[in-house]
């Protein structure tokens, strides 16, 4: 049991620390030189709320602000007042000014705070670089994460040999990492993501043997992943997303037995086998995404009992999923999408209540895929397979091997409008964008109510300490779109995804289309706030072809909240359109807070570059044109019946036609031959069961379509009278116009108006007896 006097001491010590004072008496104040330094610092960075009427070590006067509720915001100064005489004054040992909208250059006066050990200026708008005066400082922990610092790596920092933690993440530094960094022998954490560093990684980094947390993501390094990473035997976290390096991952990684978080993605170079990771018993997050890994997945991966997140997506992995994966029931996320895996989908993927995605593989065992009603549409052993888990649907699992067109030909669509992440919106010219605001899970597959489009999303936002990620976002306050415009509604919302977002247009009629992708950056801003420091980059694929690399909405639109549309010409050949957006490890991930990154899209519109065919509803047309047409049709059936009985009489057809009151003209066979160059084969534009169709031109220049019924057809007479009777009786603006006919000897010929693009065959009375 702890004695009461010790408990009292701990409470008093905690109270003093909370108020920014350690070991001070009521009469001890901050050293006057440090007060003057703070005044200069406050002026240069725009910190206007410091109240110098109160002692900075008193814990009063805004020197310690306890109003912030999240770790990204902080405004505190901590003093140590325990120094004995003659140095009995208080001294500043820690300054945290996080997310304070500070601007200007980094003040040299920080170097006058001789006892300062911790300085956190993250998520501000400071510019310039680190002043040379800082070389004399004794800092142990320094963070400039999320500012606007630029220039080469500040060599002055390599003089701060007391540093243990250094973060330059999310700035604009460029050039190589200097070899002088080897002087920082006490360094434990080095965060350099989201800069513009270049060149190969200096071998001197391998001398940092105390490193426990190394982050190099989102840079422009060159060369292979260095073998010296095997020297970091104490490392716990290693993150190298989209850093520009090439594979393979060196075998020396097997020595990093303390690793709990390994993230490497988007490596260049040639395909390579899976790296040796069997010694990594402490691994919790294993991400090797798009690293050109080929061959089988090692069995020991399934035996990593601490593993919570596994992402091996978009590699070249083959073979079956190891049976050891049955042991991964404690894992929260498993992503194997975009590989060449074969065999069957393990049944335990259905049983575990987790997010699992094994889409885009070569699974061939249909029996392993469960039947989940509407969700399951396995029709053949094709290469696409989807397995998704949506927590919002209480763990329901969807396995889908193919997205078939469930509509008959007449129900093919030729236009598609989707309001991504929002409700139904009607825009200019009466276009109605369908709602896309329902699915909200991590890895999921969703089909629209009319089965004409679908979407799949992969991934979860990491490091944001939020189990309920939001995959649709909205913002109305920063939009530059005219709010009175009907299109304003398209840009109030957007759908986002951590890794991969794919939209499908289903049952499209084949042909050439214009696909418009509508974007607006509604999270990051153009002002000087925390939201202006973020940078979003992702890749765009159309029909599985990369069409835009490292697309930046804000840059393309020349500002935040401004709409921008990217248009692509697409040839649809199998009735399916596929639009993919993928995060390739580029852009910031921790601004304004952790977990803000990945693809974002506001709307999709698809329109044909051709005149779609028109399929008529015969019943509806009969009702529309009325009883006179019905009566004429009945009369026509009577005529056809009579003609059927007289089909062997060569003169019967001529007699019957003369007996009809036809609203058409007649042509001589000589006129027809002249118009068609004597039925020249080059003039032929179609052929069916009853004869051929030729393109012709009358002397006055009018184009015609000449249908010559075959003399060998038993139903030639019937077809002839059928067409001429009906079309003559049913002249209508929407129907092909009949100019006349020709009856000479055994020739039965109909003359129509000529329609481009073979539209004649799609006219109503070519299909009347289907």
From TrEMBL:
Residues 1-25 form the signal peptide. It is a single-pass type I membrane protein. One of its GO terms (cellular component) is membrane. ATP binds at residue 707. Its EC number is 2.7.11.1. GO terms for molecular function: ATP binding; protein serine/threonine kinase activity. InterPro entries: Galactose-bd-like_sf, Kinase-like_dom_sf, Leu-rich_rpt, LRR_dom_sf, LRR_Rcpt-Like_S/T_Kinase, Malectin_dom, Prot_kinase_dom, Protein_kinase_ATP_BS. It catalyses: L-threonyl-[protein] + ATP = O-phospho-L-threonyl-[protein] + ADP + H(+); L-seryl-[protein] + ATP = O-phospho-L-seryl-[protein] + ADP + H(+). PANTHER family: LEUCINE-RICH REPEAT-CONTAINING PROTEIN DDB_G0281931-RELATED, PROTEIN KINASE DOMAIN-CONTAINING PROTEIN. This is non-specific serine/threonine protein kinase.
